[in-house]
Amino acid sequence: MRITALAGGVGGARFLRGLRTHLDRSPDLADAELTIIGNTGDDISLFGLRVCPDLDTLLYTLGGGIHEGQGWGRADESHRVQGELAAYGAVPQWFALGDLDFGTHIVRSQWLGQGVSLTEVTARLAARWGLPDQRITLLPMSDSPVETHVVVEDEDGQRAIHFQEWWVRHQASIPAQRFQAVGMDRATAAPGVLDAIRTADVVLLPPSNPVVSIGIILGVPGVRDALRGSAAPVVGVSPLIGGMPVRGHADACLRAIGVESTTAAVAGLYEDFLDGWLVSTEDEASLRLARAAVRGRPLLMSDADAAAEIAGAALELALELKGA
Ligand code: GDP
Ligand code: CA
């Protein structure tokens, strides 16, 4: 079986690690192949290095190197390089980069500088983290740089800032007026991305941010059409529980695009291709969707086992819709 998933960072990575665990525990599913299409709209150049936060969170989580408490960055990390940069007055200082993490950004930037595509760079990083051994392929959504910028207005007037500055530095506290995926007009889907959707048996949307993770991937030319045209059932997992994001500021992102912070409204963003929608038990009763089948269950990924059970439920719904 071929499973394809679209993913952002922490929510996507925890869900997909759970999915791999679920597959490995199911004798008839253990040889399933998982292809992950990762959001690169969060990417940013810092200190001359290319940083891909969502791809790295996926690599570290699936490869067993993640800082579990934070959900991002490396376990057993130190910050000596960042301290040295601060001593030189180098900016920005608001984006935390650990010493081990710097290794990833250095080698990625070196390879990109040699003309290696982000797809190939990501494959090399994934090899180090053992993803191929787990039958996982991690693809960036695009090889061309796309950066999410946020149009904000405060006492300094209206301006666009990088998504990371809005999210990390300002904690989404400045109201966003809109998001711009800078570079998307010149972007194409990375090799293998559209095929992974077209040839999948099942497509899953983890509970990633619907606006700045999944929403950005859906903006890559051809992705949305491939999902609409896909014969495979597309099943999503709600990132909202009782209308609130479990972590992060998805509510602020939804507000910026004029969408209510409800699980029904999030499903509405996927309406043209969504076949199944897994929601939290408390959201189930009030929810009727025109096209998609709704299923309710506890959706808090409180630990790896809980994530595996949630992923298993999403897959089960997809297989049911497939009539398998
Ligand atoms: P990011 O790129 O690190 O922000 O990660 P994602 O975009 O992949 O996922 C962020 C989303 O995951 C947020 O909107 C959260 O509400 C959602 N999320 C995080 N943990 C959980 C959880 O345990 N259950 C559910 N249902 N959603 C979660
Ligand atoms: Ca992200």
From TrEMBL:
A Pfam family that the UniProt record links to this protein: CofD
HAMAP family: CofD (MF_01257)
Keywords attached to this entry: Magnesium, Transferase
Residue intervals passing through the bilayer: none
Superkingdom of origin organism: Bacteria
Gene3D superfamilies the UniProt entry points to: CofD-like domain (1.10.8.240), CofD-like domains (3.40.50.10680)
SUPFAM superfamilies hit by this protein: CofD-like
GO MF term set: LPPG:FO 2-phospho-L-lactate transferase activity; magnesium ion binding
Name of the molecule in the record: 2-phospho-L-lactate transferase
Entry EC no(s): 2.7.8.28
Lineage: Bacteria, Bacillati, Actinomycetota, Actinomycetes, Micrococcales
InterPro entries with a match to the protein in the record: CofD (IPR002882), CofD-like_dom_sf (IPR038136), FbiA/CofD (IPR010115)
Taxonomic source organism: Pedococcus bigeumensis
